[in-house]
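Merlin
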Amino acid sequence: MSIRGLKKKQPKTFKVRIITVDAEMEFSCEMKWKGKDLFDLVCRALGLRETWFFGLQYTIKGMCTWLKMDKKVLDQEIPKEDPISFHFLAKFYPEKVEEELLQEITQHLFFLQVKKQILDEEIYCSPEATVLLASYAVQAKYGDYDPNFHEPGFLAHDELLPKRVLRQYQLTAEMWEEKITAWYAEHRGIARDEAEMNYLKIAQDLEMYGVNYFPIAQNKNHTDLLLGVDAKGIHIYSINNRFSPNKSFEWSSIRNISCSEKELTIKPLDKKAEVFKFFSSQLKVNKLIFQLCIGNHDLFMRRRKVDSIEIQQMKAQAREEKARKKMEKQRLAREKQLREEAERAKEELERRLFQLEDEARQANEALLRSQEAAELLAEKAQIAEEEAKLLAQNAAEAEQERQRLELTALKSKEEKRLMEQKMREAELIAVKLVKESDRRAKEAEHLKQDLHEAREAERKAKQKLLDITRLNYPHMAKYPQYSPGDSRDANFDKGSTKLDLKDIDLKRLSFEIERERLDYLEKSRKLEDRLKELKSEIHALKLEEKQAGLYS
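Predicted structure tokens:
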């Protein structure tokens, strides 16, 4: 067989784009594939086994429609585009998410879809509940809160709150982040699947959760009501109130639902009860309502029957998976605890090591400071020793000087005493000399007077002798060798000798007096010089005493 023949036998395909809440996929589908073939392919690609909750949705002429499983894809009224786009979404919602959502992928897809509906305000949520739900969403995305890693501003690019809530309260993004982070920090230790399940458990209690709303009318002219279909039944709402239904029909109380063109009839199980009829704007809307009613009713009945083997296996696997995850979580918790303890021990050891290093550094610095201080003290000790030697030397010199001054003072005192004694003696001598001088002066006066009297007597005697001689011997001068009168001459010679002797005594006496006077003057002069010397010595001693007193 040729290659060309093989190519001719290959089936024709068309491309489709499957858009999930968080991803996009493209597949090549055969022309003959039905909706179920494409749906199964997508479920296999996602690893999804709880397929009964989901469907493929597309938009045609502004209306959202679900792809029918029993019809060919290309035979249905789908958009004419390449590739053909379908949204893989949850078509039916469980009554109790914790019991019915078994697979983790199923929980994750429901979590993403419900979160998107809340943020798009398709499901109303109070501001307080939105903050709590946002904290679980953050826990599912980022894991446990770590203040060292999750710094302020780490939620700046995440959409976590509906715009209605942001407009309702005039809070900054930082304030909202602080509120969310306060709850987020409380979820420490919760795994991603647990956080998503907690999110869904809060969301399933909201009034608009899982409800598909359609405008209807009780007559053909007015659309003044809303019909809601969910997992519990059919509800009738007023056009302005989607929270509290005016009337509800639970699946257990509905006997039959019929659809004919734009009219839909609900027959209660109680035959006596009134049959409810309503009209929709289009036949397609009526068929969509009817399709959702059948699907939700089938699931309602299915929940109340014994689980199929597949469901039992899935539940067993889910329990095993939960048990395994629980054990894994406990193991991880233990490991985490041990790791935290080890980290704390490590931090403690590092802190202790750092402390010891710091203490060692401080001790080393203290040792260096001690060495420096010891060297400084040694230098100071050496300087002090030198100063002590110098002080000792100065003290010795001072002691010697003191002794010298004492000796000098003693000598000065002794010399002063001696000088005073000498001065007193000199004064006494001076007094004696003065007295002696006075006495000698008086004696000299007397001697002078006696000398004067003697001379006067001598003059008178000579004069008298001459007078006598001239009178008695007038010719004696002419006759000197006159022999008579030898006795007279002898007497005259004898008188002359006496006179000459008396003159000699007077001269000698006068000479002695003059000599004594000169001796006295010389002694007086010497005594005055000695007194001057003594005064100068006393003045010098006084100056030395003053200087010694100042030095002391």
